[in-house]
Specification:
By secondary structure, this protein is of the alpha+beta class. It contains 5 helices and 11 strands. The chain is 21% helix and 27% strand. A 6-stranded mixed β-sheet has the order 4-5-6-7-9-8. Strands 1-3-2 form a 3-stranded antiparallel β-sheet, with no helix packed on it. The two termini are 31 Å apart.
């Protein structure tokens, strides 16, 4: 959602947060993963959409300072069975740790959710890979795959999503694709304009760098889309486009 502390002029958080709220209201997602969210942005989202519960913490050693990769979920539909955050580093349980060439900490926040109606549960992971270090992106992909593979119960379906700062041909995505399914890539292999970085200007060329992956078994992928929602005067909620997927537990 682009960090709210940036001095963006017409794209400042105070001038576009209503557009962010509108995306959530219009599309009504069950589960949402965000990147670059600061606590005051999270607080404003929860105030505007109180139907969503929150899971997460910041990537820094201090839990409320700096950027989060928060998960939001509809409280009426889901109960949180487990949740946590690990760092994309050689010491994933050490708050604020970083070892792979990234100059800022990177995290993955996860949860195990139970559908209150059906009683079935699934896992969801949300992350933001480094924007500079290719080694960090590649090692982050390996670590996330290892964590997903180690989930317990291991037969429950899982979702992995995030801003990966990596195009579809990047080795990080190749690693993820060995054990996970790329929802948009699976349904729309022939779409040419598939960029997810709009840069506030509505562009759709360039790389797709935002993804929703799912485990090879457990999900029927019904829909996957890049949401290019904008205001009548061509203002955008963020510099990236949101991506979504409609999934059915099999």
């Amino acid at each position: 959602i682009w960090l709210g502390v940036a001095n963006d002029g017409p794209n400042h958080w105070d001038l576009r947060k209503g557009l962010v709220f509108d995306v959530l209201r219009d599309h009504k997602p069950d589960v949402v993963g965000m990147q670059e969210a600061w606590k005051f942005q999270i607080d404003e989202i929860q105030k505007a959409l109180p139907e969503y519960g929150l899971i997460g913490r910041s990537r820094q050693k201090e839990a409320d300072v700096g950027e989060w990769c928060p998960l939001f979920y509809l409280k009426a539909k889901y109960a949180v069975l487990e949740s946590g955050t690990f760092w994309l580093s050689d010491t994933p349980e050490t708050e604020g740790s970083m070892h792979w060439g990234n100059k800022i900490p990177r995290i993955c926040t996860w949860a195990r959710l139970r559908d209150k109606k059906s009683g079935r549960s699934f896992f969801v992971y949300n992350t933001h890979f480094d924007h500079q270090s290719q080694a960090s992106r590649e090692k982050s992909a390996v670590l996330c795959c290892e964590r997903i593979a180690a989930r317990k119960p291991g037969d429950e379906a899982a979702i992995f999503m995030g801003d990966l700062n990596a195009g579809e041909g990047n080795p990080a995505n190749k690693t993820l694709g060995k054990s996970l399914r790329d929802t948009f890539g699976e349904l729309h292999p022939g779409v040419k304009l598939r960029g997810t970085f709009g840069g506030w200007k509505g562009r759709s060329d360039g790389n797709r760098i935002d993804y929703i992956y799912v485990t090879s078994k457990g999900w029927k992928v019904v829909e996957a889309a890049i949401l290019r929602d904008h205001s009548a005067d061509n203002r955008y909620p963020s510099d990236h486009y949101p991506v979504n997927a409609r999934l059915i537990l099999e």
